[in-house]
Write a structure and sequence with these properties.
The chain has three domains: 1-30; 46-79; 106-175, no CATH class. It has 180 residues and is mainly alpha-helical. It is built from five helices and four strands. The structure holds zinc ion.
């Protein structure tokens, strides 16, 4: 009879009527030895028993190896995820850069509204400065010029408007190519 639990070290109470001792802390219990245990096999049954145990052990081993292999494969595919994201973000940065580089012809470069305002003769430092539409019917200041949002309105001032570039926070105005 044990005084303390071999698993958790808690004090054990008296054995049950069956002779088993049970730990109330962790649930450990003694295995009751069957009094009428069958006689150990001999001869062929012993050999078959041994073979069965060997086969069982082999498949257990195989299972563990497969589990390890599977775990290493799935952890490797998880490591590739951030790398793919890295490439994607690099491509996005390069696209952004490409769109920022002037196309070559200074008359066809994309401009910020401030730059476009200056091209029309506006003065950024003078809050009363106004620019005229091409037909001279409209005169507006910088803040009104910035608030123009559609293609037709910017066209009145001789500029092409790109809502795509505006949404991407890129310069979005460029001089309309003049028809001869
Ligand atoms: Zn215990």
């Amino acid at each position: 009879m044990l005084e303390t639990c071999p698993r958790c070290g808690a004090r054990l109470g008296k054995p049950l009527s069956s002779g088993r001792q049970v730990c109330s802390a962790c649930g450990w219990s003694t295995v009751v030895v069957e009094r009428s245990s069958p006689p150990p096999p001999t001869g062929l049954p012993l050999l078959l028993n041994q073979l069965a145990r060997l086969i069982k052990r082999f498949f257990q081993y195989l299972g563990v190896r497969l589990q390890l292999l599977w775990r290493s494969l799935s952890s490797r595919s998880q490591q590739q995820q951030p790398r793919r994201n890295l490439w994607e973000s690099l491509v996005r940065k390069l696209q952004h850069l490409e769109e920022k580089i002037p196309s070559g012809d200074p008359n066809r470069e994309w401009l910020t509204p401030e730059e476009a305002f200056q091209r029309l003769g506006g003065d950024l430092n003078n809050p009363h400065s106004k620019v005229s539409s091409l037909d001279g019917k409209r005169r507006i200041g910088l803040s009104a010029f910035r608030r123009l949002v559609n293609t037709a309105e910017y066209a009145d001032f001789g500029f092409q408007y790109s809502s795509d570039r505006h949404a991407k926070n890129l310069p979005y105005l460029r001089p309309l190519s003049r028809q001869p």
